[in-house]
Design brief:
Layout: E1 2-8, H1 15-24, H2 30-41, H3 50-53, H4 57-64, H5 72-85, H6 90-106, E2 109-117, H7 124-147, E3 153-160, H8 166-179, H9 181-186, E4 187-192, H10 205-217, E5 224-229, H11 238-250, E6 255-258, H12 260-263, E7 273-277, H13 278-290, H14 292-296, H15 304-314, E8 322-326, H16 329-346, E9 352-355, H17 357-363, H18 374-379, E10 383-386, H19 391-394, H20 398-407, H21 412-421, H22 427-430
Parallel strand pairs: 1-2, 2-3, 3-4, 4-5, 5-6, 6-9, 9-10
Antiparallel strand pairs: 7-8
Helix pairs in contact: 2-5, 6-7, 11-16, 13-15
Length: 436
């Protein structure tokens, strides 16, 4: 039996199901999808003939599934097809949730946490209605599974927007949980996902602290903090990307989504010209100076004089000014050292890394599964779990993701240990609650 701790509810939809839902929707939101897909792939979609043009399941799969190595914005363009085709009303949410839970139970998943995101400006009444529909769907899915001889416990994490209304939406949910037992049972976490570029972790640390205080004072309505980080980092150097992962873990995120930057082979960046803002470069060099002795104990790194020179070169520059860095073999050595330092710090926390091999292969644009850093994470005593992310979009199952982790270098004994240990990393347990 497996536990899947990182998957997005609508990203679980098989291609055939999404096509059916879309064809039954009288008003698809094409404006969400058409431009983004054309910009990403150079293909112009005709919405008037869409369901005739792609009635062949294999053709629709090519349009929908993300099985190529491309940046996050290409992935988002395909995910936008889901957003465009679904109604996303209470009835549909309830039915989709129930069906997804039942489908995973047939794949020997006995515990799963699903993520769902509402609109940034979702009215309070609509937010509550959709939230209730999703948890009711979880209960229905569990009942259906049980009647078919399968046992699955399903839980919900609401994905909040990094830039807007996340504190308000959190407050709504906490207040509703006090009043409603079904919400207290099924709602277990808050997640930050979507585009991470431009949203520094440090801006969320005060909020993280407030969540942990609330969890301590009201454990029966505790919510774990789940945070996508180090997955897509085209706006910064790999050094700063590693620092963001470290900041999230040290700052109180219970599970870290993907965290590729933390352990990916440093030579992956050889020959790149990386650009970041002065504010990021300044934050990075200050950390390196503060921790220089410890960092240097993990291998070759900048000298204090070199770091002082970098810091002095940033003086007088505005925070939003851009700094360009060429990534050579020396910087690769230094990055490897800095990664080992960061992993040693995270290994002392309770943060868990959610590894999603297929997702990481494609969005992370790795050459092969062997390039996934999961083996390095394990070797550095980090807590890890293996998850499916968007199994419908990636055309995968959780069992297949374990197979990919084996290809990445983990032996059968280690994989079995991860499978067993993952049950201990549920959101409620990470919040210190013994019940679930």
């Amino acid at each position: 039996m497996y536990t899947d701790l990182h998957n997005h509810l609508y990203g679980c939809l098989p291609a055939e199901t999404l096509f059916r839902i879309g064809k039954q929707n009288p008003n698809p939101r094409w404006e969400i999808y058409l431009d983004s897909f054309e910009k990403a792939y150079g293909i112009k979609i005709n919405p008037k003939t869409f369901f005739d043009d792609y009635k062949d399941p294999n053709q629709f799969k090519k349009l929908y599934q993300f099985r190529e190595k491309a940046p996050f914005l290409h992935f988002q363009a395909k995910f936008n097809l889901i957003i465009a085709l679904v109604k996303f009303d209470e009835r549909e949410i309830r039915e989709v949730t129930s069906d997804v839970v039942f489908s995973q139970s047939l794949e020997d998943v006995s515990y799963s946490e699903y993520r769902l995101m509402f609109g940034k400006d979702e009215p309070k009444e609509s937010f509550f209605a959709k939230l209730m529909a999703s948890v009711e769907g979880l209960a229905l899915g569990e009942e259906k599974s049980k009647s078919n001889g399968k046992c699955i416990n399903s839980r919900l994490a609401i994905s909040l927007h990094r830039d807007k209304n996340y504190e308000q939406h959190y407050d709504w949910m906490k207040n509703w949980m006090v009043k409603d037992s079904i919400l207290r049972k099924y709602l277990v976490g808050i997640d930050f996902c979507h585009i991470e570029e431009g949203f520094p972790v440090r801006d969320k640390l005060h909020f993280f602290n407030s969540v942990h205080k609330d969890n301590k004072s009201s454990p029966d309505s505790s919510l774990a903090i789940l945070y996508h980080v180090g997955e897509s980092f085209r706006d910064k150097t790999p050094f700063s990307a590693v620092r963001w992962v470290l900041e999230a873990g040290l700052g109180g995120a219970n599970r870290l989504g993907h965290a590729l930057a933390l352990g990916i082979d440093s030579d992956f960046f050889l020959g790149d010209e990386r650009v970041e803002t002065v504010s990021e470069a300044r934050a990075q060099v200050e950390l390196e100076l503060e921790e220089l002795d410890t960092i240097s104990s993990f291998g070759p790194f900048y000298s204090k004089d070199e770091l002082d020179e970098i810091r002095n070169g940033l003086e007088g520059k505005s925070d939003n000014e851009l700094v360009y860095t060429n990534f050579d073999s020396t910087k690769s050595q230094y990055l490897h050292t800095f990664q080992n330092f960061a992993m040693s710090k995270l290994a002392k926390t309770n943060a868990v890394i959610e590894c999603c091999p297929s997702s990481n292969l494609y969005i992370g644009m790795l050459e092969h599964h062997i390039d996934h850093p999961i083996q390095r994470f394990v070797q550095n005593d980090l807590k890890v779990t293996i998850a499916s992310d968007d199994p419908g979009l990636f055309g995968t199952t959780l069992e297949e993701e374990y197979s990919h982790a084996h290809t990445a270098g983990l032996n059968s004994k280690t994989l079995e240990s991860i499978r067993e240990t993952s049950f201990q990393y549920s959101s409620r347990r990470l919040c210190g609650c013994e019940f679930d």
